[in-house]
Structure formats: C-alpha cells, structure tokens
Design a protein that fits this description.
This protein has about 425 residues and is of the alpha/beta class. The strands form six sheets. It has a seven-stranded mixed sheet with strand order 7-12-3-15-16-6-17, with helices on both faces. It has a two-stranded antiparallel sheet with strand order 1-2. Strand 8 and strand 9 form a beta hairpin. The radius of gyration is 21 Å and the shape is globular. About 5% of the residues have low confidence.
C-alpha cells in the first residue's frame, strides 16, 4: 500500500508544497471515487468592452466570436457565452455603484458608508475553504482607489470580493506575497528558493511514484521555479504604466522588486500563481481583478500610451479593441495553461469554471445586460460550446447564475442577492 496520500506535501524549513494530481495517488481527499474537485475563478475587467465586437453565435467548433473574444477561439468548444443578464444597480449609473455589488447583488451603502454583501466567491470559500490550505485567493493588478465619487466610495470600484457586508477582501497585488501564501508556512521571508527548501523531500518522492508521475512532478517543479525567477525579475524593464507603488521600495521584507511596473508581466505572473494554486489544490476559489473599474492603467506594451483605460472605454476605436483583446488574452492564457494539465480523464480546465465579466457592458455605463463568458466544464457538470441568450426573458439575474455556479461547487443555498431561482438552461 502506497503510504502517500492526496494530502501529502513536499516539505522544507518553513515551506510546504501540495502535490499536483498524480496517477499513483488517485484519491483527492474529500472527493468521491477519486474525482478531482471543481475550481472557481472569477476574472474582472473594468469599464466594459467594445460595443460592436462583444458577441458570440452558434455552437461548438462552429461558434463564431466577435473580435474582442477572438483570443478564445481555440477554446470555443469549452466556452459558454451568456447574453442578457443584469445586476441591480446599487445607485446612480456611475462606476462605483455598478461595481461594488457585482458579485453580491445587493443594494450598496452610499453617503460615505461602505456596505455591500458577501460575494458569491467568498460564500463558496466560507463553505468549502476548510478543505484546502488557502480558503481563497483574491488577486489584483491595480492598486485600490481611495476617494469618493458622487457620494459612493471608490472602494466599490476597486473590489469585487466581500467577506462580509462591510468588509472588502484586500487585494493581493504583490506576486511574491501571493506565491508565499501558497507555499510558505510561517512569516519568515528569506531569499532562499522554495524549491531549494523542499529539494530533499522531492528527491524522495521521485522514488515512490510511477515514471509518468515523475515527469508530472518535474514539470510542476519547473513551473514553480519559472514563477519564482520571473517574480525576482519583475519590474526591471521599468516601462511606465501610469501608476507606481506609493513607496520607492515596498514596506514589507519581500518582494524586493515590489509590484511589477509592466502590466503584461504583472497579469501573467498572477495567472501563473492561480494555475499553481489550482494545480496543487491549495485553493479552489480565486478572483483576479485585472484592473479597477474607472481604471487608470496605461498600455505601453501595446504601444498605446496616450490615454488611460477609463478614457479609452469612451471610444470604440482600434486602440480600445486592442486593449479589450489584451484582457481576453489573459483568460485565454489561463485556459491554455489549465488545459495542458491532465487530471485523470479530464484536464484541469475541464475541472474548472473560469468566468470573465465586467460591471458594465460598454464604456457608456450601459448595465442593462452585462458581458459574461465562461471557460471550463466544472468537472463535467457544465455543458459547454454554447451561447445562452436571456435578453428577452423575464428572469435574467446575474445572481441566478451565481446560484447555479455555486451548485456546481456543491454549495447549495436557497437564495443569493436578489435571486431565488437558478439560471434556466445553465
């Protein structure tokens, strides 16, 4: 009998790394019959999308995609495009009042009062988070906005995850600290590599698993090393992004290079950390806020440096389309990474739900029906390769979608936000 189990870790001084799926260790802890768990990731892109190029038609491999969604073309058979869902507007049609309740479906506090609700990702984390080392990851790529806009706190524009009605979950902006949360077990921060710390344990593991699993372990350790090295190099190119950390050096012992200055590098690091978290079942719930609503990001990586993201959103020109595609490329990159990782008969993408959305459909604050696209099959529980259109239906609440998504995570509640019904047909 192999003495290793799914909950085995590679360990070193102050460090532990959960194992990826291995055929030699077929049992996934609390999952029945060795089934891999379902993972949930919500990606947010502020300020909406191009008004004429966010669309999908058809089914499966014949699905046609608008130009914003073209980066997802390789995954159209694993894609679910949803049209017509709406969320209650928390106040006047401004960015903060449309974003603060995106994942909660509640009425927002105004007049300087900060009050939303528990977001559905955090409700899932509260119900199943005790099964993993980290209940949830809340990642971001742009610092929070500290101001008021027409009586509404801009905390609403900066956060989509809420652990209580009055508590927005802080964004982890530092890739190194997000990496540490996955693998370090204490508060000590050293320059020693995580892989160096667990090297002896990793050598012992190689002798206890099959030859194909040895290859999986090597590929996994290589990906961890790659992320470590890229974190160490982050920000050295120094392209101006329109914002900088408020300190010349971070006010924490680590990471030495702070927030990467290059938005493309920053987003890719966060995507890779999300992949590592799901691959090792260190967490099953993650939100990745690619930018704020009312965002000030600039995009010199796209040779677009004349306008910030928010101002670009009030155009429908080629630059706005290219920026939209850049954000969808992050989802496509995530899908590709997850789809390359086998978990028995499925891939990690097949065992996940990745949802990308925004709190408005276009830059003119249109919120009557929101942009929603999902990639992944939720462990075979979600039929993909479909376009679902609810625009002319009486029941078209975003929170109905969340109820349905929570069901697929085995988190069942009678109501959430403004919804008491699951999303028909999902």
């Amino acid at each position: 009998m192999n003495h290793l189990s799914r909950r085995s870790f590679l360990r070193g001084l102050g460090v532990s790394m959960a194992l990826p799926w291995l055929e030699s260790l077929p049992v996934w802890g609390d999952e029945p019959a060795g089934e891999a768990p379902v993972r949930l990731a919500v990606l947010f892109s502020g300020n909406g999308f191009h008004s004429r190029e966010w669309w999908a038609r058809g089914e499966g491999r014949d699905m046609q995609l608008g130009r914003v969604l073209e980066p997802l073309a390789p995954y159209r058979e694993k894609l679910t495009f949803i049209r017509g869902l709406r969320n209650p507007v928390g106040g006047p049609g401004i960015h903060s009042s449309q974003t603060g309740n995106l994942l909660t479906g509640t009425v927002l506090g105004a007049g300087g009062e900060v009050r939303s609700g528990v977001s559905f990702d955090q409700l899932v984390a509260q119900r199943i988070g005790d099964r993993t080392k980290v209940p949830s990851l809340v990642l971001g790529c742009e610092p929070s906005i500290a101001s008021l806009h027409k009586g509404y706190s801009m905390i609403y524009s900066s956060h989509i995850s809420w652990s209580s009605p009055t508590t927005a979950v802080p964004l982890e902006l530092y890739p190194a600290l997000a990496f540490d949360r996955l693998f370090r077990d204490d508060d000590s921060r050293t320059d020693r590599s995580v892989l160096d710390a667990i090297l002896d344990d990793a050598r012992g593991l190689r002798n206890q698993v099959s030859s194909s699993d040895r290859q999986r372990v090597e590929e996994y350790l290589t990906s961890v090393r790659d992320v470590e090295q890229r974190i160490a190099q982050a920000g050295r190119a120094g392209r101006l992004q329109g914002w900088r950390p408020t300190l010349a050096q971070p006010n924490r012992p680590r990471p030495a290079d702070g927030i990467p200055h290059d938005v493309d590098q920053h987003m890719r690091l966060m995507c890779d950390i999300l992949v590592l978290a799901f691959q090792t079942d260190t967490t099953r719930v993650c939100t990745l806020k690619l930018n704020n609503d009312h965002s000030s990001l600039r995009f010199p990586n796209l040779r677009i440096d004349t306008m910030i993201h928010h101002l670009l959103s009030h155009t429908d020109n080629a630059d706005w389309l290219r920026v939209n595609q850049f954000f969808l490329e992050q989802l496509a990159y995530l899908a590709g990474r997850l789809d390359a990782i086998r978990e028995g008969e499925r891939t990690l993408l097949d065992n996940s739900m990745l949802m990308l959305t925004s709190s408005i459909r276009t830059g003119n604050h249109e919120a009557d029906h929101l942009p929603v696209v999902l990639v992944g099959g939720a462990g075979g529980r979600l039929r993909t390769g479909r376009v679902l259109d609810y625009l002319d239906r009486p029941e078209r609440r975003m929170c109905s979608l969340y109820l349905s998504m929570m069901d697929k995570m085995d988190v069942r509640v009678d109501r959430f936000g403004d919804a008491t019904q699951r999303l028909a047909g999902f």
